[in-house]
Amino acid sequence: MSGTGRVAVIDCQVAGVSGDMIVGALLDLGADPVKVVGAMEAVGGFMGGCKSLEVKVEDVVRGGFHAKRIEVEAEEASGIRGVELVEATMNCLESLELSVEAKRFASNSINTLVAAEARVHGVDIDEVHLHESGSTDTPAEIIGAAAALDNLNLFDAKVYSTPVAVGGGLFRFSHGTVSSPAPAAMEILRSKGFPLIGGPVESELATPTGVSILVNLAREISRFYPMMKPTAIGYGAGKKDFAEMPNILRVMLGSPLDYQSWDEVSVLETNLDDVSGEILGYTLDKLLREGAKDVSIIPTFTKKNRPGHVIKVIVDQVDAERLSRLLMEETGTLGVRVYPCRRYILSRESLTVDVQIDEVEEPVKVKVARDCKGEIMQIKPEYDDVERIAWKTGKPLREIMELARTKARRILLEG
User: Per-residue pLDDT tens for 344-368?
Assistant: First the structure.
């Protein structure tokens, strides 16, 4: 979700964010409603206690603006344990034909939500019992968002978000009267370091489901839109209709005005001289799974001529605090140096090519990098796809790599 071939902006600084608003905005952008609604309704077969599930899509007007409204209607028993919600979501994802990126995104979103609920209630994920967040519409909206993003090929876009409006005032839910935003939504924003804005109405504007989707999708946060050429705009409607403002979430797609861009990141760095190779390897893998852009482990000599290692981690600025804490927890280091850094990066895009192996065509995702003039600088097949085909066919990995690279270059030159 950090490519620069396309840009997406989620504008939630007025009406906040919810799962249904995100799905609605993506449908308004052009996501296939049959595929999205089908993925959402598939959830009903994996939620224990859900007798029926229907997803309705309608055109509505909010504050004078046309928008898409999503309504999830389920006949179900109330309440579910967090671990059951995660299990149902993962089982449903396994049954759907979604990309690896889409499934990872949905998995991260549901786990973010359940972990926040557990922290708020002071229990383990296995023990937390969900009420509002445990209803079928929660995984349905998360999987719907994943399916829509996948259909629009937005997992390769560079996604920005404005700070999220959280509303204000008091509202009642299963644990009594609380102030807006809901405790789980506030915990997600806190844990991810995601900025919020109070108001502009006394109502709950940022739901836990919407926030969990947002923080796992947006990699850059700014009060202002980036420099871009807009190409499409989608509006997703919230359930309520406010007199003071249009209750809509706006998502804008566009392209950068240049083929290259600058990227603001943070570099985390720490010296280690008493950590085993096994711990180093595990930490590297965990950092990457938790969202680090890159991790390097460099051999060095420390004080008193002790052999050691320097770990360098490139992360999005919003993730610097969270991943610094992870680095300290996993290695036992007493401190992490954090440097703001500006990267110059080439434009990147992706496409899927079919590689023919022994009269059978196999899909391979390919990433393409271009210079400032639009000239192709690099064509790189995705390793996971190539490895899968190599194991399946017994062909050399490098041979499949070259076939995919050649096919992609031919398509790009002909196009």
Answer: 888 788 899 999 988 889 999 999 9
The answer for residues whose C-beta is within 8 angstroms of residue 173's C-beta and 6 or more apart is 131, 132, 182
Question: CB–CB of 254/73 below 8 Å?
Answer: no
The span from the CA of 158 to the CA of 8, in Å, is 6
pTM here?
Answer: 0.66
The CA distance from 406 to 364, in Å, is 12
Q: What is the CATH number of domain 346-414?
A: 3.10.20.300
| Interval 235-259 mean pLDDT | 91
Is the CB of residue 239 less than 8 Å from the CB of residue 210? no
Contact 128, 32 (CB under 8 A): no
Which residues of the chain does CATH 3.10.20.300 include? 346-414
Rounded Cα–Cα distance for residues 188 and 215 (Å): 8
Asked whether the beta carbons of 369 and 348 are under 8 A apart, the reply is yes
What is the assigned CATH class of domain 261-335? Answer: alpha beta
Mean pLDDT for the stretch of residues 197-220: 95
